[in-house]
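Notes, Module 5: Reading structure tokens.

Key idea: the token line is not a picture. It is a compressed description, and you learn to read it the same way you learned to read a sequence, by spotting repeated patterns. We will look at two proteins. The first is printed below with its tokens.
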Amino acid sequence: MPCWPPTSARATLPAGSPWSALPAARSPGEIDPKIVDVGRRYFDMNEPNLHVTVADGRYWMATQAGQYDVILVDAYRQPYIPFYLTTREFFESAKAHLNPGGVLAINAGRTPTDNRLVDALSGTLNAVFKNVFVLDSNRRFTNSVIYATSSSTSVDQFIARAGAETNPKLQPIAAEALQTGGVRQVRPNGIVFTDDLAPVERLIDDIILSYIRSSG
């Protein structure tokens, strides 16, 4: 799980994440030490501003996390997400570790026609955060990134902020995402996963089966 501390520059991301190209300080959490070893050996995860913690994401959040500008949840064991990283209680914990104006972002899988996982996560996030936005990947992938913040903002402000990116490595990524991603604000939809009931595995199983049936 990645996270970015204050703009002065600290962040927390998952080890080996493509977000590691960002210049800010990062504090990734990774549950598998072998992944960390691979990242250091083959992906140059040795920068002085990268501080990796080997721990379960939710335990780390509850016991060791600091305050961040960005927290990114990208914790798949394809195609599943640990259920306890999808609940209102977890998002409340993450919110408590965000600085004013901070953003929680979640990478969520889907099929070209089935957004039920995205809907479940965005609905749950709406129970915790003031504003929730979804940006779809382009046609090469089938996933969406869900952004949640307690700040007052709008789709127009979201687009303007992304379009103002000055990092030359990120500019083309931001431009393509805005052009093809269909960024939109999503509202509460009646779905709220909790620690007592978060049937994310059953939901993903059904998404997979529906995709297989429709492809047959």
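Here is the second protein, with the sequence above and the tokens below, as before.
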Amino acid sequence: MKETAQAAPALAGAAAYTRPAARLLPSPTPESRAFWTGGRDGKLLIYRCRGCGHFLHPPGPACWRCRSTDVGPEAVSGRATVAAVTVNRQPWVPGLPPPYAVAMVELADEPDVRLVTNVVGVAPEEVRVGMEVEVFFEPWTPEGGSADDRIWLPLFRPVAAAGGTDGAW
């Protein structure tokens, strides 16, 4: 679903990042809703199995390790390490001008849990495997949607650019 931009407050230490005019947004499922809305409270919510204690992503109704159905969202630290990165140079999404870094990040809380995201606040060419990053959230309301439909996209920036904030806008 294509989204329209809303004003974003300035973020100390992230002067290199300019919020795009538009992004493609997900359509949350019952399992993924917490992931997409946790940013409202400045929290990155990842499903955790209460049977074996491991985190799992993407969220689902059962743990892929132990098959327990006792799973639910829990806040993680928001820290991660870039595991893979590519720089997109094609104008695929109107309103999202290239170049931008698309990265797979490993969560510090459990490195085999990985998210595909954008790394911002640094030139795309400077994003490197092994770079430590931290989450922050970009709120979006779907075109024609209401405040109840708002999602908070988890994006990552270098830890040094976070400036000691709590990770939320």
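Summary for the second protein:
- Helices lie at 33-37, 159-162.
- The chain has one domain: 33-160.
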